Amino acid sequence: MRVMIIGTGYVGLVSGACFADFGHQVTCVDTDGGKISKLRHGEIPIFEPGLGRLVESNAKAGRLTFATSLDEAGADADVVLIAVGTPSRRGDGFADLDYVYQAARDIAGAIRGFTVVVNKSTVPVGTGDEVERIIREHNAQADFAVVSNPEFLREGAAIGDFKRPDRVVIGTNDDRARAVMKELYRPLFLNETPIVFTSRRSSELIKYASNAFLATKISFINEMADLCEKTGADVQAVSRGIGLDKRIGPKFLHAGPGYGGSCFPKDTLALVRTAREAGAPATIVEAVIAANDARKKAMAGKVIASCGGSVAGMVIAVLGVSFKPNTDDMREAPSLSIIPALQQDGATIRAYDPQAMGEAEPLLPGVAWCEDPYDCASDADVLVIITEWDQFRALDFAKLKQLMKGRAIVDFRNIYTPSEVEAAGFRYTGVGRG
Question: 18, 28, 228, 263: which is the annotated catalytic residue?
Fold first, then answer.
């Protein structure tokens, strides 16, 4: 099939590379000429394990190309996917749909034969209706169908999620569009992946509801972690105990410094705004947002408490600043709340992250960026683990003891047990370990 994807960000580039790997002829379109030039030369603008190899192999095979406009992309497409950003709008938190609507106007002028227009971007309920209206307004004779097909890609595991998904959600009532989408996802149909066909509006809401529910699980276990610290319980045991219940499940029950990233913060805000406008307030989601914001702000206090009530004049080594491992994404990362608060209390921050330091540097002024975990720990009074990169899971405590001035370790991801850290001669502070 001939597939065009508008947007070469995280969703667009991963989707384009994977569809090309399925055997489709894919063109990724982006108005950023610099980005397109880099992609044509094999430079990947984001860090995602395996993505570079996938783009390179399909580009060499001629199945994946890049263009700066639909006109430049050339041949008529069977499917055009909109995969542009929908960031939170300033002031009200609603999804900014300007890029989506501009893509709809561009598509209207490029439609020749029957074309399926797919909203891959995360959009509020009813956006598909507006995209359809815009295309019809700009090209009254166009033969097309607008479909909702939300993505469920985890940063750091996106290629596996695309090729081996839990489910594919497709929102359409058009029989021709349904047939085209089946062909688009033909390899997954052959693998008997669950394909959920539903209405367009239901599909749009499934995406927001999924992310809001997962965000709720994270905030819930974080509140249980606070309760564990007050009562002497261990959140690791509590999480396992409730996660073995098949009605609950173990995923997203890992206590930490709060969720971040490109999806949960903006999608929960957008869902709350949609619910208010519809007259059905999502009060649980509103509480989740408030709890997560408060948690990220409170985490600096945990570091300060571990140092006796003040970090003034101290050197703090921070391992990991991205919002999660295996990505360089800094959007809404807990480090953006924790590090400035520690600096405000008078601490000097040394930090290391395997991938995100380039993205983080302009966001975290005054931080000294280091070459590796041990360079970071040199002369530090306390070591703080914010992001659970694999390379932080087997630190040499004997070496750390030689390098550090202090003997305090704060582990916001509970990747170590208190006994092993204390046996090495350090004071240990975890999350939810009373």
Answer: 263
Residues of the chain with pLDDT under 50: none
d(CA 198, CA 212): 20
Mode of pairing for the β-strands spanning 115-119 and 368-369: unpaired
Would you identify the CATH topology of the domain 2-198?
A: Rossmann fold (3.40.50)
**Count of beta carbons in the 10 Å neighbourhood of residue 142:** 18
Please, which residues have CB within 8 angstroms of residue 84's CB and are 6 or more apart in sequence? 6, 7, 9, 12, 99, 100, 102, 103, 121
Structure tokens at 130: 């507006």
Cα distance between residue 107 and residue 341, in whole Å: 46
Contact 79, 180 (CB under 8 A): yes
Q: Reply yes or no on domain 297-429 having CATH 1.10.10.10.
A: no
β-strand pairing of 195-198 with 315-319: unpaired
| Catalytic site includes residue 263 | yes
pTM: 0.93
Return the percent helix, strand and coil in the chain, to nearest 5: 45, 15, 40
Where along the chain do the CATH 1.10.1040.10 domains lie? 208-290
Q: Which part of the chain has CATH 3.40.50.720?
A: 2-198, 297-429
d(CA 45, CA 52): 10
Number of residues assigned to the chain: 434
Asked whether 317 and 340 are in contact (CB, 8 A), the reply is no
- pLDDT at 75 (0 to 100): 65
pLDDT tens column, 119-159? 999 999 999 999 999 999 999 999 999 999 999 999 999 99
Q: Are 156 and 324 in contact (CB under 8 A)?
A: yes
The encoded tokens of residue 35 equal 């980005």
